[in-house]
Fold this protein.
Amino acid sequence: MTAGLLYKCRWRTNQWNYERNSWDRGWDMLLFIGVETIHREDGVDIHNYRFHDIIKNETVLMDKGLTRHCEEIKGDSHERD
């Protein structure tokens, strides 16, 4: 992931819900801010991914597991219309 780029992060909670555009969890437009690392006393490093939700104007913090559902939004908006 690259700071400053836009991503959409969506997934289904029902494995049989494969209808078109049937995403039931996630975000449509997130600005990636960067990775924050927490160094625990037991020697484990936790990597959190900070985003800004452009639509809701909120901060979103994800762990590495959720970021596997993210993909970069490419191109200008008029190219996708």
